[in-house]
Amino acid sequence: MAESEGQERTEDATPRRQEQAREKGQVPRSRELASVSVLVVGAISLMWFGQALGEALMALMTRLFSLSRAEIFDSSELMLVVVGELLHLILPLGLILIVLFISGLVGAAGLGGVSFSWEAARPKLSKMSPLSGFKRMFGTQGLVELLKSVLKVVLVAGVAAYLVYINLEDFFELTIDTFPSNLYHALDILLNFVLLVCCSLLVVVVIDVPFQIWQHNEQLKMTKQEVKDEHKETEGSPEVKGRIRMLQREMAQRRMMADVPQADVVVTNPEHYSVALRYNSDMDSAPVVIAKGSDFTALKIREIAAEYDIAIVPAPPLARALYFSTELEQQIPDGLFTAVAQVLAYVFQLKQYKKGRGRRPTRPDDAYLPIPTDLQHD
Fold first, then answer.
1. Dihedrals phi, psi of 187, to nearest 5 degrees
2. Smallest Cα–Cα separation from 287: which of 350, 337, 349?
3. What CA–CA distance (Å, rounded) separates 251 from 101?
4. pLDDT tens digits, residue range 225-268?
5. CA distance 368 to 345
6. CA dihedral 74, 78, 80, 86 (to 10 degrees)
7. Which of the chain's termini has less CB crowding within 10 Å, N or C?
8. Report field, pTM of the whole predicted structure over 0.70
9. Three-class SS of residue 314?
10. DSSP 38-104
């Protein structure tokens, strides 16, 4: 985006950015890990299965050099001989190839895991651009690859020279050994050389793997603006979220106002708070708060209560206690049972009086409504 242009990429990639990069095939990879794993495992597999492979090859050559006249001039017979001998090579050679295949897969997926992306496999003109090629050759990545190549040459040459130096006596013994013991001895030395030289390249792997992880993280770093934009996309912009919350509050208030006509009494702090209570002995074990509000909402509750001839009882301490200690559609706290019971008794007596039964009741005095200290609010 235009706002993020010119900004430094100082923020670590978010999980969403990392997932998007993975979908595009952008994962850390170490070619050195893949190639060295194949080399080392290949050397070990030759040490394990090389003898069986050598014996099978020797048997093959011995059989082919000892063909009879009939076998040579009969193509079908010759083919049977060749195929039969080649079958002996399948097991040792197949074992070596399977081990190499598995090591190649494990080495390739060892850093970055298994990931396939059509987008990464799709040909891109930018990759075929000579200018992009020169940038890769002479950029940071090209320099790193050059240093790794130099390090590999130094390691291989140094280890090979050291192995030759410490095995000079074995080389001299080869000249006095008899066949085929000298051949087996030479093969043992050669396999050990190959394994140790391949293992020396693990130094390059130890350097390359952390570098590839660091480089990958650097490429995925984001600017502060990109982090903010992504947060807006995933969580929603503050303006939209604020609008949604406002609409939710309005809907909740409308539902609450629709419940006010079901109230038995509205307890008020005449200027600021109103709490509508319902008590139905058939469905409520205790009085329930069905509506409450302050200022304009409190006034609206009182207007609806007056419209439906619901008793409005001014009791500031009790109204404040109910407003701050209750939630909608919940029963009142135990500590307010006695005070609310007095108010409800007054309301029920008032209803009887309006029907012409009994004397006009006296409204409970605020000073005599018991409100626990922990529920009192100024």
1. -65, -40
2. 337
3. 64
4. 887 777 776 665 566 666 767 776 777 677 777 878 888 888 88
5. 14
6. -170
7. C
8. no
9. strand
10. HHHHHHHHHHHHHHHHHHHHHHHHHHHTT--HHHHH-HHHHHHHHHHHHHHHHHHHHHHHHHHHHHH
